[in-house]
């Protein structure tokens, strides 16, 4: 856990005071809506269909149990008893009142939380691997650098009014769980000649013009992280388009001037500031590291008797095989908590569930919780001997659906049920899909499939990079959905291919089912995953069958 | 529009002159085009010279004049257009400009502090009511995360100093 | 003054002006008395572009009470009651189409 010190607390309090004053000036009519909107956005406050929405940052997806309880408190006191975990390691509350926002913010600030950098044309909350500091496959804890970026980017005076929002993601593992190639900047920690540094990827993004990012630097020594980021942001601030909101992201600038020219500008600017005030040194990085309290890991060994005995319970065994991953410390494990039970809105959790997870984290997981971009929660450090008890407790809360990575582990944006920009609903579709694919044996047999739903072209549900992507469109007031196949968000990021004409709402589940039946029939063996089969076969066989019955 | 410099309301001694007009016997603010065309001739007069610099033009072009310019006025056409923040930092931190750096255009109170942090020392304020708020706004925070040319201490360094001192 | 966007306003039937209340974001409609109501049936109904523009002008001038005003089609039943026409407006009137998490099933 990163422990906030007096400095961070002072800053947050001052931020709350500032926002309280801004809200007051808006309610008094001193600020008009045009002036106020960017100010509220910079505190994570949107206006949706039915109410204001508050988005709270969960920096690098890490929450303490007390912070989770603070979220539960906000859900109960200021909202309607639940929250929505998003693909960007944030949580959204859908029913907040503007008048009450300053108080909600003050309550959050007491737990070291805020809505800063969750909206507006600034550098957004930096996201990372939810398994950071737990998975054996990483070379260093990426949250260290995410925290360094957080500090540098918080209320950055030069970069608070960029052409458009700016998202940075970072990973240190071979397997990219942070989708770094579809971010404005993606950073991949790796080592060269004994030095830790980053591959720097720029200009990825989804939305109406999706791009996979381009590598502009294979290796950036870690001490140069901030000066290099500042050079990229300055290049973008000066040259990003401001004439058309749809062309204002950095991906368009990179695309229009070319990766080479963009890189040249960044490198030229960087050369000027590289050795300036932003240069990091080991001491500075260690000072940040010192703020991350490492759990007091018990000395344990893998495969304790309690665990082996529990595996004879088939339900536990199924959950264990699906939702538990290896840990870097002996006798420990990473547990993913599914927020995708059958028939529920993906990513939603009630205040009671939040409190329950906080208590379980305290009992079994050193008090630490993570938020995954797949809209699930993670307990990064669980003692293997406690897995069975933990599972029973999660199950009692409806939090032990063994569907992680499977077809019913759907990523979905709020869609038209909440969102003012939506063309179509996402949640009912997700609910229908989870009901159709409720049979655990069947979904385990189908295996790994990522299905992503966005309610409009803004792509908040990452449909372009879903193995199956579903995009809501509107035709004469009716909801229709376009389906893409073959997208990937990982280190081999790829955009999906359009299957064919959009289908009406009541057809989507059938089409998805036919696609999956086709896969099961055509796969070479159970070892060939859905995505591998799509790659081998192309979309034609799926297309034929998907539309055949209509 | 009221001009506030270093936190205090001041009279604006500079006259903005259109490109085709003759220069008055007073300190002037000329356009970028005029400065680049007439350069030396402007400075040969006995009056301070300032320039109004558009936000889509490279400020590093000001290098030859930077020691002689009394004022650089940068423009925020809309408060949401933040290009002039970068220009301000480049002028102060790269070119070492010491004169008056003036924020003009849609200059509103909720951006005062950002402007000051980027090196502006003069604010041409749009709303009369915002003038009284300058002091409060630019002191609304006592702590800052990132270094800019304004020299305020930032936590990475401060924490480090504390750690070393301890 | 009307912006170019507003001038293009196409009105194809009974229309109301809707927005969200400033203080809490609740969906509201402009009433015949130029106030705001959170009940659709209290909304002022117009059917010509000129009238809609006039109401929109009134609504936009009152953004200290309600924000983001725009015209929305409605149907008028025989008894005079109003109903939204498209799904978006139906959801704004009736709330999300899915049960809220934690709500008693
Ligand atoms: C409900 C209110 C929301 C609004 C108004 C909203 C708005 C937008 C817009 C306008 C874009 C397109 C930006 C662009 O292409 O330049 C976007 C992208 C995105 N949003 Fe949302 N969003 C909302 C909710 C969410 C939620 C719930 C999530 C996570 C589940 C999310 C995550 C993202 C991501 C990951 C992207 C695409 C990646 C990218 O930035 O290119 N948003 N959003
Ligand atoms: S994808 Fe569209 S509908 Fe979904 S949350 Fe984003 S803006 Fe709203």
UniProtKB/TrEMBL annotation, chain A:
The domain of life for this entry's organism is Bacteria
Q: Which InterPro entries match?
A: NiRdtase/SiRdtase_haem-b_fer, Nit/Sulf_reduc_fer-like_dom_sf, NO2/SO3_Rdtase_4Fe4S_dom, NO2/SO3_Rdtase_4Fe4S_prot, NO2/SO3_Rdtase_4Fe4S_sf
Q: Where is each Nitrite/Sulfite reductase ferredoxin-like domain found? A: 52-110, 343-396
GO BP, one annotated term: sulfate assimilation
**What residues does the Nitrite/sulphite reductase 4Fe-4S domain cover?**
119-272, 410-545
Q: Which UniProt keywords apply?
A: 4Fe-4S, Iron, Iron-sulfur, Metal-binding, Oxidoreductase
Example GO CC term: the record gives: sulfite reductase complex (NADPH)
**PANTHER family referenced in this protein's UniProt entry, alphabetically:** SULFITE REDUCTASE [NADPH] SUBUNIT BETA, SULFITE REDUCTASE [NADPH] SUBUNIT BETA-RELATED
Q: Which GO terms describe its molecular function?
A: 4 iron, 4 sulfur cluster binding; heme binding; metal ion binding; sulfite reductase (ferredoxin) activity; sulfite reductase activity
Give a Pfam family name.
NIR_SIR_ferr
Matching SUPFAM superfamilies, A to Z? Nitrite and sulphite reductase 4Fe-4S domain-like (SSF56014), Nitrite/Sulfite reductase N-terminal domain-like (SSF55124)
User: Mind telling me what this protein is named?
Assistant: Ferredoxin--nitrite reductase
Q: What is the lineage of its organism?
A: Bacteria, Pseudomonadati, Pseudomonadota, Alphaproteobacteria, Hyphomicrobiales
As cofactor, the record names:
[4Fe-4S] cluster; siroheme
Automatic annotation (TrEMBL), chain B:
Q: Which InterPro entries match?
A: UCP030820 (IPR008318)
Give a Pfam family name: DUF934
Q: What is this protein called?
A: Oxidoreductase
UniProtKB/TrEMBL annotation, chain C:
What is the official name of this protein in its record? Answer: DUF2849 domain-containing protein
Which InterPro entries did the record assign? Answer: DUF2849
- Source organism (scientific name): Azorhizobium oxalatiphilum
